[in-house]
Amino acid sequence: MNRLVIDLQLFNSGKLAVVCPITSQIKNYPFEVKIPDDLKINGVILTDQLRSLDWRLRNLKIVDKVPEVVVVECLEKINTFIN
Question: Where would one find coiled-coil regions in this protein (predicted)?
Fold first, then answer.
């Protein structure tokens, strides 16, 4: 499964990554964030399924980078249910 890394500083400095899963099954749920069509991965980011994982054990690789506006939208949606 593809994932969006939320905290790149944490990702770069250690072995933990804070991620949101990505799915190609678009259901138009309020916490989905659409990935732009011009990227290598298509679908939506599931911001309500935020988790941390050891990226070294999972062999995570960066495949593409979403525009900053997508990251901001993800963080805003995450913030609504964390606070």
Answer: none
For the chain, the residue count is 83
pTM over 0.85? The answer is no
Q: What is the pLDDT of residues 51-69, one digit of tens each?
A: 888 877 877 778 888 999 9
Residue recorded with tokens 């593809």:
2
CB atoms inside a 10 Å sphere around CB 83: 5
Q: pLDDT higher for 9 or 41?
A: 41
Report the C-alpha gap between 37 and 43 in whole angstroms. 8
C-alpha to C-alpha distance for 83 and 69, rounded to whole angstroms: 21
